[in-house]
Design goal:
This protein is α+β, with helices and mostly antiparallel strands. Helices cover about 30% and strands about 40% of the residues. The chain contains 2 helices and 8 strands. It is elongated.
């Protein structure tokens, strides 16, 4: 009986260690929205002023000839600021995945969809 108990204990330890490694691996693979935004995005659909956007790691966003800043406020909200323009502290809803970025203009009931260019 003692032998069986130790054998089962070793099996449980191995299972626990395996689950720990899987959990650590999955948590390392999950990306935060901030890191998923980084890169160049092209609008899908009609052309407008927000056609191409580039997000840099330092919080800079480039839209056409305009350069400003962005920051993720909380899950699903993104703030833009373009000094010297009428776009100051604009907060929009957003979602992002590896290949798709969506801006949600609640006030205008409008959605802009983008695909990754890089």
């Amino acid at each position: 009986m003692n032998y069986t108990f130790h054998k089962n204990l070793k099996s449980l330890k191995a299972l626990f260690i395996g689950l720990l490694f899987v959990t650590l691996f999955l948590s390392a693979c999950s990306s935060k929205p901030e890191s998923l935004l980084i890169g160049k995005w092209q609008s899908i659909g009609k052309e407008d002023a927000w056609r191409n956007m580039t997000f840099l790691k330092d919080g800079t966003v480039i839209m056409g000839s305009y350069s400003g800043t962005y920051r993720v406020l909380e899950k699903g909200l993104l703030a833009f600021n373009f000094p010297g323009t009428t776009v100051s502290n604009l907060v929009l809803g957003f979602s992002v995945s590896k290949d798709e970025f969506i801006l949600k203009w609640d006030v205008l009931d409008k959605v802009n969809k983008y695909r990754r260019m890089d």
